[in-house]
Design brief:
Blueprint (H helix, E strand, L loop, with lengths): L8 H13 L10 E3 L24 E4 L1 H6 L1 H7 L17 H15 L2 H12 L7 H12 L15 H7 L1 E3 L3 E3 L4 H9 L3 E7 L13 E8 L3 E8 L4 H14 L4 E8 L2 E10 L2 E9 L3
Antiparallel strand pairs: 1-2, 3-4, 5-6, 6-7, 8-9, 9-10
Helix pairs in contact: 1-5, 3-4, 4-6, 5-9
Length: 285
C-alpha cells in the first residue's frame, strides 16, 4: 500500500488543468462501459492460477470509431505491436517503427494537453522552448532503448513497459498500465480480467471511476494489482509522467496529487535518462 505523503498542490493544480483540457478523453457510459463484477482475491506476483471473480470482460463496450478517428489514439495504437514482450530479448527497431514513434509524438505535441505541459516545463527550465528540441527530449525519455539487466542488450524502453507491458521469464507481468492496450488485449482474449481491487474506505469502485486497481492475467502470468487510468488520452498520461520525471532526480519518485475526485500517488521510476516505469496508485478517500 502506498505510504501517504503531503499533497503536491502545484502539481495537483497543473494536472487538473491538463484533465480539463483533455478533450480526447473518453467519457464513461458514453464512449465506453466497464463491467466491474467481483472483488479480486489474494494473489502473488508470479502466480499462474488465481480465483477468477469476473466471468466477463472488464470492457463491455468501447467506441472504436472514436478511437480510430482521434489522431493521438490512432497513432498510439499503431505502436502497440512494435515490441518483443519478453525482457532479455533484444528489441529491433525498424525505420518504419521510428517513423511511427515520430508520428505519435507529432500528434500529441499538437494537443492542448502537451502544450500546457511544455509551457510548464519551459518555466521550470526543464525543457527548451523549441518544439523539435522538446520532441527529441520526449523521444529519449520514452522511446530510446535500454537494458533492464546490467550489461544486457537493449530490450526495453519506457513506452514499452508502461503502455504495452512486458513479461519476465514468462512468469511475471511488468508494466501494462494503459487502458487502451488492456482493452485490445482483452478483446483478443490475451488478457483475463479477474476482478477489481478496492480502495480502503470504498466497498467497490463505480463504473464511471476513471482510475482503477485491477487484477488480471496476461498470456499466462497474473498481475496481482495493476493500477491504470481509464478513458484518458495518451497525451494526458505522457504529460503527467514526463513532468514528474523531469522535476525529480531520485530513482523513484512518488507524488501525491488530487485530480478530480481521485487522490493518487503517481509513481515514476527513473532508468538513467529514461522512464523505467510509471503508474497511478489510488489512495484511500
Amino acid at each position: 500500500m502506498a505510504s501517504r505523503r503531503a499533497l503536491n498542490h502545484e502539481l495537483s493544480e497543473l494536472f487538473n488543468e491538463l484533465w480539463e483540457v483533455d478533450v480526447n478523453r473518453f467519457t464513461p457510459g458514453k464512449d465506453y462501459m466497464i463491467d466491474l463484477q467481483g472483488k479480486a482475491g489474494a494473489a502473488q506476483q508470479g502466480d499462474s492460477a488465481v480465483k477468477d471473480n469476473a466471468a466477463r470482460h472488464l470492457f463491455h463496450y468501447v467506441n472504436e470509431e472514436r478511437l480510430k478517428s482521434i489522431k493521438t489514439f490512432a497513432t498510439f495504437i499503431s505502436l502497440l505491436d512494435n515490441y518483443e514482450t519478453s525482457t532479455g530479448v533484444p528489441e529491433v527497431v525498424t525505420p518504419e517503427e521510428i517513423a511511427e514513434n515520430n508520428r505519435f509524438l507529432d500528434a500529441i505535441l499538437a494537443t492542448k494537453v502537451m502544450k500546457v505541459a511544455h509551457e510548464f516545463l519551459i518555466k521550470k527550465k526543464l525543457a527548451k522552448p523549441n518544439l523539435a528540441d522538446f520532441k527529441h527530449q520526449l523521444y529519449v525519455i520514452w522511446f530510446q532503448l535500454y537494458s533492464r539487466k546490467e550489461g544486457g542488450r537493449p530490450d526495453s524502453c519506457g513506452f514499452e513497459h508502461v503502455f504495452v507491458g512486458e513479461t519476465r521469464r514468462g512468469k511475471e507481468i511488468l508494466g501494462l498500465h494503459n487502458w487502451v492496450q488492456f482493452y485490445l488485449q482483452e478483446k483478443h482474449n490475451h488478457i483475463d480480467y479477474k476482478g477489481y481491487v478496492t480502495r480502503k474506505n470504498k466497498t467497490r469502485p463505480d463504473k464511471d471511476d476513471q482510475v482503477l486497481s485491477i487484477q488480471f492475467s496476461w498470456k499466462g502470468p497474473v498481475k496481482p494489482v495493476g493500477s491504470t487510468f481509464i478513458g484518458v488520452s495518451p497525451e494526458f498520461e505522457f504529460a503527467l509522467y514526463t513532468i514528474i520525471f523531469l522535476l525529480a532526480e531520485e530513482r523513484i519518485t512518488r507524488e501525491t496529487v488530487k485530480i478530480e475526485e481521485y487522490e493518487l500517488q503517481l509513481v515514476v521510476y527513473r532508468h538513467w535518462r529514461h522512464i523505467g516505469t510509471a503508474y497511478p496508485v489510488l489512495l484511500s478517500v
